Amino acid sequence: MTQIGTDINQAKRLLEKGEVVGIPTETVYGLAANALDTNAVVKIFAVKNRPSFDPLIVHTDSLEKAADFVQDIPELAQRLANQFWPGPLTLLLPKRPLIPDLVTSGLDTVAVRVPNHPLTLELLRSLAFPLAAPSANPFGYISPTTAQHVADQLGDQVPYILDGGACQVGIESTIIGFSAEGPVIYRLGGMALETLESIVGPLTVRSHSTSNPKAPGMLSSHYAPRKPFLVQPIEKALDQYAPNRIGVLAFQAPIASIPTENQRVLSPTGDLAEATTQLFASMRALDKLDIDVIIAELLPDQGLGRAVNDRLRRAAVK
Ligand code: TXA
Ligand code: MG
After folding, report:
1. Pocket of ligand 1, candidates 27, 44, 52, 57: which has the most ligand atoms within 8 Å of its Cβ, to mutate?
2. pLDDT at residue 212 in the model
3. Shared-domain flag, residues 235 and 191
4. Distance, CA 276 to ligand 2 centroid (Å)?
């Protein structure tokens, strides 16, 4: 059985022994292991049931430490790291050989991020190695935003979950890479595109699996509840299902024709950051109700709303 607690030393001891540990970040909870130890990283893939072609993000506590395991940090990447780390931004950088091929699925770049969470930063500072950590959910399911979410699904396979409270951002980090033609966004995420563009200028977004072999993990079906999940007008659903069999993920206000106990409202004031924070816990709550289908409303397609909409659309892909 798993243990949930705030003991950084216990997390450290387990990680040093090559075990996996659940860790809080500002985006979502991660399933961490020593990124330099292939045997430890193997456990991450096994616990998550994750295919080995989907590479992991490596977490560290500073740009200086990242320089130990990447070949080169382009000037633009340095600027972004200085501006936004610790924070919900992942940089794709050329890897050094000490990063195992399993971590990067054989790619020559490694995804690197400094997470903005006090417990995890303290843990990272205390360790002699960086932590590989994907989101701590079974492959394809909704990412966890509390320690309890991690325990609910992976509890019997994870000895310890470091409890850092509910995640403040609530969706995964934005992933940016640096190609010869300029910077490219491979995953929309917790750092709004507009915020990045204010520093970098116009950005190319290439976050679809078919056109995106570089990021094999950007599968079109992802973040999905077990129940059928649809992004469509409620009228269409009412042709097919009785009102009390429908769950609704609403942005600002519940839908009048559906029982309120079957609905989750992301932000009554229409605040995109609040809606983002609530997203995954609300999807999980709806998935547990006695209903047949979940209907989701899209958010305005701007700022964090774009990243949320990307997840809603992927959750709806079968
Ligand atoms: O916010 C986050 O990023 C969370 C927390 C725990 O840090 N982590 C996370 O990890 O979302 P994961 O494994 O669920 O998603 C990582 C994504 C995958 O889709 C993977 O394909 C992509 O990052 N990725 C990793 N390394 C890559 C690389 N070298 N090139 C392209 N994509 C990469
Ligand atoms: Mg994930």
Report:
1. 57
2. 46
3. no
4. 16
